[in-house]
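Hey, I'm writing a tutorial for new members on how sequence and structure tokens pair up, and I'd like a real worked example in the thread rather than a made-up one. If someone can provide the structure for the chain below, I'll link this post from the tutorial.
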Amino acid sequence: MDAFPFPGLLVDKPVIDEVLDLDTGEILPAWKAVGDDYEKGVQLRMNLKQGNRSGRPVYACPLCVVPVHLVSMMKERRFYFRHETEDGRCPKKTKDKLSGERILAMKYDGARESAAHIRMKEIIASSLRLDPNFSDVEIEPIWKGMEANSRRRPDVRAVWCGSLPVAFEVQLSTTFLRVIAERRAFYLKEGGLLLWVFKSFDMGNARLTQDDIFYNNNRNAFVVSEETLEASLRENRLILDCVWSEPCIDQGQLTWSQHRRPVPFSELKVEQETQRVYFFDADGAKAACIADAGDGAMRADFCRYWLREPQTYEEQAWQSLWERFTERGIDFPRYPGEQDGFRAFMDTLFTAREGRPVGWGHANLVKVAHHVFDKYKGQLWAFKLMLVAHKRGDQIRAEDTSRNWRDKKVKAYLASWAANDETFAPDRRFDGLISFLFPEIAGDLVKTPR
């Protein structure tokens, strides 16, 4: 699980305690600009650095109007703003003589020649050469840009499917954000794709630099090793070890769990325009979780209303439900008795779900089944699906002591469905609401009865 050990993302006493929003002209408290969502804080770091580099800065110091970027403390994942350039005119001093970025740059350049880095490049290149979809594999080639004096030297370069140049960059040391941002921008402009790879990756012990890549790549990271090289040899294609996070709602809170498995490059989703490569769509899953959590609350409120005792009409509660569902695009009668058969339909389906008569004056489930067959034949398809979904077979057989349900009525409606008898055609007026309230039958509800 992702854990965050402190309540705020900003350091306690930042030098730059306010920032100027260059789009709106609003001056924001630094803590508000950073927010309290760590993933968004990491993404903001990238956005600020890329904006400054491209000449479209997002935030500036309100005193000197010099663009700012977001820096993290070395030992804690807490942030503060720093001037992009500092020439002495601003009373807020944020840089030492030798900047932290310059120190990190020196570390990065030294790490490029380490034995581990060299071996990583060899593993990537060897794996790529096994994959027939990759061609023109080179280690540390010169990649010339369209602009004069614009060039990069990626760790490994190859061409995917004859058309997409891919740069593989090894992340071993504390590669700093400026390197990441500048390389992403370069390869995007040149029509290429940048893929960062790690020697190891553990979200429980990730450095900020790894976070900069992970959270800006849809919560996916890729590892290469001797083991992935062996897998590539076995399968004759590039195999990467993918680490990703999956969301879920636990007691009303969004939580994340880490997952890992080897994946072939051919199974990855490539977004060249955003410079993202991923196996699991964490952003999509997060949106679905949040939407489903909201749907779950609405579903629970409707069920709570319908199953309340005594079952009397409560206008305020019902109208509140109607308004919420209508805003969600789910239509049903504004008043329970407004449309013929609506109340009976809901009682029928809740009876099947609960295994007891709901809203009916009948003694048991099979007697409700007989009543639905006799009076509401259009509800039989949804009713049957609910009986199957909630495993009511044994119960209804035990209650069907005369076998009249099994031997006569079940055979009758099955034969009628087979003959496309319109008398037994499903009532489709409330399919949208039924699919929402009872997702366990939503997939089959729209099908033709059989």
